[in-house]
Amino acid sequence: MGHHCDTCGQEFTTLTRKRLHDCAGSPAEMRDLPDGLADGLPDRFLTMDEAAALDESGVQRFFPLLSLGGFNASGKVIAGYAKTIDGHLLLAFNGEDDTWYVVEENSDAALFERDEDDLLWYVCKRSEADVGDVYGYDSSDPDYPQLGM
User: Fold this and answer.
1) DSSP-assigned beta bridge partners for residue 144
2) pTM reported for the whole predicted model
3) What is the CA radius of gyration of the chain?
4) For residue 98, what are the CA distances in angstroms to 46, 94, 110, 130?
5) What are the pLDDT digits (tens) for 99-119?
């Protein structure tokens, strides 16, 4: 079945429900992190302990969304959601310049246009992450963001 990528405009076929393809586009206009959040993120993937510490810092809530190696002690967070005083942020790591970026932001609701697939391809194109090693996270927590709306 043919699908259209809203990010890069390419038509592609896939056998998966997730409609994955090797997207050359960026999931959104990126912007730098707010100062308070930039200070808490390293210039590499986050460890699960670092992700948990973010949830206890000036960030009101933090959820890992994608990881390499799973969501256990050895997993590395490559994309996440942060609720801050300024709004709701989808974050992704860019391995080309070893920096975390905001790839989408909402001011009053955690309903995002981008989904896990957009974040997955964004990170994998810009780092040494392999698509087959990436795990998605899901939560029943009422604060967990709604992606792909």
Assistant:
1) none
2) 0.72
3) 15
4) 12, 6, 26, 17
5) 888 888 887 666 788 888 888
